[in-house]
Amino acid sequence: MTVKHLPNTATVTEIVACVREHGHVVIDQLAPTETMDRIQAELQPYFDSTAYGHLPELGFNTQRTGSLIARSPAVHELIMEKTYLGAAKELLSHANSMQLALTEVNSLSPGAQAQFLHQDEVLYDNFPFPADYEIFLNSLWALTDSTEAMGATRVVPGSHTAGAGAIYSHEDSIPVEMSRGSVLLFSSKLYHGGGENRSNQIRRMIDIGFSVGWVRQVENQYLSCPIEIARTLPEELQKVMGYESTGGYGFIGDRKNAFSVLQQENKS
Questions:
Q1: What is the pLDDT of residue 35?
Q2: pLDDT recorded at residue 58
Q3: What pLDDT digit, counting tens, does each position of 181-191 carry?
Q4: What CA–CA distance (Å, rounded) separates 162 from 164?
Q5: pLDDT score for 258
Q6: Does pLDDT of 56 surpass 70?
Q7: How far is 223 from 133, CA to CA, in rounded Å?
């Protein structure tokens, strides 16, 4: 039982195949050090002021810093990385649209306890989605190196086929050790959980989640990113954030397309 890794030269096809077969994949050093340095610098003031979790599932020694679109322009580069975003779109292509569902940095301080093993699918009211329907796709970018001693996320490879309610022990899982700039992409059906930080270092991971376009976002992108900032973003990022109306979802007023309204404001 091993963590599956691919080089940063991997294709969309290779990444998608690995996630579908194993429930996860690490793409090694997909983001350059310079990008991670800028993200660290842009977000440091917010790290300094973010409260620690107030519930066991949030981690009493864990900080969760959100609103990354508004707070870190360099994070935009991670989200829009061509191969990574292409794989996310393909893995959620069974829906008419895909949207950004979550942006936050998870910072595990020394002494942080291990998280329970869970599926991210539970975010959606524990609804019993079909085994072959992916509702949410998560990813963790290593803002710092991530080692087992630092509390690396633990996964149960292949558990995305087990279904809801499966029981796994800590011994069933393995740590996903990654170097800075690498990203773990994984199914919302995969059993996983944060590890115990036994080191004297903070482990920071940038959590970027995507969902199909017809469910509510985990993090409300329209409020977490002020409209004044949203109007300045590249069109493709605006669409990924959920501003493009699709099918019967996301219209404004008299069936107006939200993206068109946003663009009209830009031109006025």
A1: 98
A2: 62
A3: 999 999 999 99
A4: 7
A5: 83
A6: no
A7: 28
